[in-house]
TrEMBL record, chains A, B, C, D:
InterPro entries noted in UniProt: TMEM175-like (IPR010617)
PANTHER family, sorted: ENDOSOMAL/LYSOSOMAL POTASSIUM CHANNEL TMEM175 (PTHR31462), ENDOSOMAL_LYSOSOMAL PROTON CHANNEL TMEM175 (PTHR31462:SF5)
Lineage: Bacteria, Bacillati, Actinomycetota, Actinomycetes, Kitasatosporales
Topology term for the membrane: Multi-pass membrane protein
Species in which this protein is naturally found: Kitasatospora kazusensis
Designated name of the protein: DUF1211 domain-containing protein
Transmembrane regions: 7-27, 47-71, 78-101, 113-134, 161-191
Known catalytic reactions: K(+)(in) = K(+)(out)
Amino acid sequence: MNETGRVEAFSDGVFAIATTLLILDIHVPAGSGHELTAALAHQSPSYVAYVVSFLVIGVMWVNHHALFGLLAKVDRTLVFLNLLLLMVVAALPWPTALLAAHLQNTGDAKVAGVVYSGVMVAHALLYCTIWWYVTRDGHLFRPTIDTRAARATRTRFNVGALAYPATMALALLSPWAMLAVHALLAVYYAFNQLTIPGGEPTATPD
Amino acid sequence: MNETGRVEAFSDGVFAIATTLLILDIHVPAGSGHELTAALAHQSPSYVAYVVSFLVIGVMWVNHHALFGLLAKVDRTLVFLNLLLLMVVAALPWPTALLAAHLQNTGDAKVAGVVYSGVMVAHALLYCTIWWYVTRDGHLFRPTIDTRAARATRTRFNVGALAYPATMALALLSPWAMLAVHALLAVYYAFNQLTIPGGEPTATPD
Amino acid sequence: MNETGRVEAFSDGVFAIATTLLILDIHVPAGSGHELTAALAHQSPSYVAYVVSFLVIGVMWVNHHALFGLLAKVDRTLVFLNLLLLMVVAALPWPTALLAAHLQNTGDAKVAGVVYSGVMVAHALLYCTIWWYVTRDGHLFRPTIDTRAARATRTRFNVGALAYPATMALALLSPWAMLAVHALLAVYYAFNQLTIPGGEPTATPD
Amino acid sequence: MNETGRVEAFSDGVFAIATTLLILDIHVPAGSGHELTAALAHQSPSYVAYVVSFLVIGVMWVNHHALFGLLAKVDRTLVFLNLLLLMVVAALPWPTALLAAHLQNTGDAKVAGVVYSGVMVAHALLYCTIWWYVTRDGHLFRPTIDTRAARATRTRFNVGALAYPATMALALLSPWAMLAVHALLAVYYAFNQLTIPGGEPTATPD
């Protein structure tokens, strides 16, 4: 496996584990009969937070994957920037659990919502930094990639990233709306991606 | 690694982690001497739930693996559907722990059993959706696959999937019987698979 | 990636996660100053159990790896047997935590020790079953493997496996001695392996 | 996948899981409104410990990766030494949680800091042992590697490793300073690596 492949494999591991650990923060309620049904219903913020965070991390993975698919090699700086990105990805079960625990109580939910959105902002900033770094002179790109065209996407890229700080403000108004926006952003980014000339993945029948 | 390979690797990670996290929900009992033996015996529903859920997720992985083995490439829609499927797979330690905690008490066990079977229904629905999507026009299949023959399996596929909603009803009668049926379904699906002409995996000596 | 490769990758995931989850059962003691030092010292059975179980699972992985290195392909039966083996591997953090929690108290430690050794017996039985299955007619072996020579190892293989039930009896005499024997067995199996003519792994500069 | 590849894949798994488990030791505080904000601020040692340990494990992974990139094959001794190294890597969430829990209280923080640094010393010792083993006669190196040049790095390697025991002494003076030094060492080792003639990784466009 080449260098790029192993960085991708390590990153895949962190993404896969972070999504799967999300479930550990949903506790098994005690109580019996009707109480159990009520306790399960009371946990609904946890289910919503699980679904949103799973989608968000999943789509982060899809986009991480697309970005690394453009690269022929990696260098020390990129490996280090990627490590910082993974640090934020791996942290996501914590703000998810924080938000789920406090979403029912208006005052707390705002604090938890700002923290949750703040972690998403940190992810967006690091992702933009990596994109800025690899498009600067395209020294890591596969030979078929049009570096000029890749660099031209920077503006659109950064505009999209501005949505994330806006969700911090939204968290102060309505943490539920903030969560809905993160879900919508995930679905949006799942289906809308910048296409870079020459960057089409090679589909091989194995 | 091509696109399909990386989606498989990420999925493998989620399957492997979800199975391995199941053990975290079996707690270490306190007490000493004869009390410890009794406490361990009292945990038997946890052991049964662990075995059944491990088999179920394991067989889900085997079948996921077989399905992706038919594909030459993936597209955005399939990646997104697969993400939804993995969201359900990754959630399985929670209904497993819920069922284990409440299996001894008749009233609660029914509630927990319906939730457990409900998560299995969600999995079956998503799996059928993916199968429906890839057999629709076979645009992602390896060139050797007979798309018409693959599409012809849809009916048999959906009939099998009807067993899952039936387990929800069974949970109301007997949660233990429901669990036994899930174990039998897992063993059944481990050994009986639809064979698609041209879809034999290529065994290479590496 | 071929079939064998993906079964190995999934198995590697379960082995890696099971070893890494072991640490979650060592808790952070409260208390301050000298109390903290004493509390840390009091946890020593947990450290010993961690080291032994990590070695045991690590060496299980090494041998699993060696066995699968002999195979050109897998079939449904092997995939299912391997799933049962992984079910036992993934369970190991639980008997490890059980033993660590009860090792200081003579009466309990015997119960916990029998459970711990019992799980190891289950692993040894499944591993022998897999070896028996693949050497029966060698239908899954790489073409270079001498099936007759592989089958001839069965006796030596089974004799080695008898050590595991003996550790269950030893646990009743001295759980600490039982743990020491498991550590020794792990080191022994790490350095002594059956060599099968034609089964040398291919070392490639990639 | 060849032998080296599978040892790397297993190691990658352990590194990825160990980093991702770090977040499980940051708990979700209770309390509401201003209390929640205060509780979150009170957790700051946990955040700092998370960041430092994530960087440390991440950089350990980068260097592990670079070392294995020099190898064409592995032998039993290396697999066993690597297993001991991974045992220390997988243990890191525990000293991290220990340090985070006790960093606010001067007396305890020293005890926790010595344990934290002690685990790092164990890692450095094992890493040096592996380097000493593979450079002894270079029997595992890829053919392009200059074994003599690789062996000549041993002194510089060991000098660097002396920094780790020094951090144990520093922990007695100031656990916070000790933590800062570990962060600096991680950043230093991320960007400064011994380059071995002939050991450049092969960058292939897939």
